[in-house]
Amino acid sequence: MTAPQTIPQGRSGTPPRPSLADRRPMIECRGVQKYFGDYHALRGIDLTIREGEFFSLLGPSGCGKTTLLRTIAGFEDIGSGVVLVDGKDMANVPANVRPTNMVFQSYAIFPHLTVAENVGFGLRRDPRSRAEKAAAVEEALEMVGLRGYGKRAAHALSGGQRQRVALARALILKPKVLLLDEPLSALDRKMREQMQVELIKLQRQVGITFVLVTHDQEEALVMSDRIAVMFEGQIAQLDGPEALYARPASRRVADFIGVMNFMPARILGETAEHVTVAVPGFGTVEIPARNVSRADPGDPGPSIGFRPEAATLLAANAEATGRVNGGVIDEVVYYGDMTYYDVIMDGSDAYDGIPHEVRISMRNVFGREVPDVGTRVRVSWSPGSLVLFR
Fold first, then answer.
1. In this structure, are residues 149 and 118 in contact, taking their beta carbons and an 8 Å threshold?
2. Would the pTM of this model clear 0.85, i.e. be above it?
3. Which of 29, 310, 339, 346 could bond 47 through an S-S bridge, CB–CB 3.0 to 4.6 Å?
4. What's residue 54's pLDDT?
């Protein structure tokens, strides 16, 4: 578990891209419904994806994200609603003539062909000369960092190289939209993280709309301009990575995105600016109105949530910048760059007699003491980092 990164907009030496609000719509879904027999896979999807946007569909298995991607691609019909690409209604437009191309999870590389033959496969019926096609293949390979690989056998490539070949094969047709169905899931962690950065750079280089399907929360946070979180065929929240992470719209979204601590809360009063709550182990807290989200059906009652990095274990002589409460370390989990501490806060059992743990993350820096299980600690936190689910 690592903290989500903020990827800078624009590359060195290039002007910043226009804001999303200033870009024209590239994909529009209006009231899209999809059934598989009696199963309601997509439930009234309304969505606009902008030109040149890196957009992610994120959710658990079976939530409808891949089905939505396939309806945009034209591989699935819809029961009702409208899908537009570049302003044109895609009803009755087959997949092979839509201005989209798709990179599948399996890459679908032909092992008996060379890299160049795989990349140029979609140009078989193109009217250009053989020399022009060869030049287009070289340009596509250059784009994905495989210059000089054209004559290599496809079966001799690594997983990361096969993924690049699949990208080059999709981009050589110059689509207006590139659809990516979990393209990094087969890679090991180190290669996956490397390819995430390379995909970001590639998308900015070619300037076309990328739509990524993933179940990996961290991957979506790192790569996307905006993210649609889906559950059960519906979009639960559509937002930028930072807003999605810091201000989830519901407890279910908060629980799915990264790690979130939850504590029971009692509402004492509210104004237009804040809600006053009592939280066992934290005391009376004023939650800013912008940090109030909805609870989900079946939740036992109001609760507050905060991310592990929003609290800090204080050294013995350290001064706190926020509020301070005491507790005891119940577990220590080492992750290399980070250590996670499960802390039982003093008084956390006040409501139900059950001690509640909170998880706190601390970056491992040289010279910092790592306290053991059973150590009493001081915990510093800020009320502004808390989210109320009610």
1. no
2. yes
3. 29
4. 97
Give tens-digit pLDDT for 239-260.
999 999 999 999 999 999 989 9
Question: Residues 192-210: what's their mean pLDDT?
Answer: 92
Q: Which CATH architecture has domain 20-246?
A: 3-Layer(aba) Sandwich (3.40)
Calculate ∠ Cα 179-154-67, nearest 5°: 20
Q: Does domain 259-389 have CATH number 1.10.10.410?
A: no
3-class DSSP state of 289? helix
Is the fold of 20-246 the same as that of 259-389?
no
Average pLDDT over residues 71-87: 97
Q: What kind and span of H or E run contains 355?
A: none
Q: What is the pLDDT of residues 92-137, one digit of tens each?
A: 999 999 999 999 887 788 888 999 999 999 888 888 899 999 999 9
Every domain of the chain and the residues it spans? 20-246, 259-389
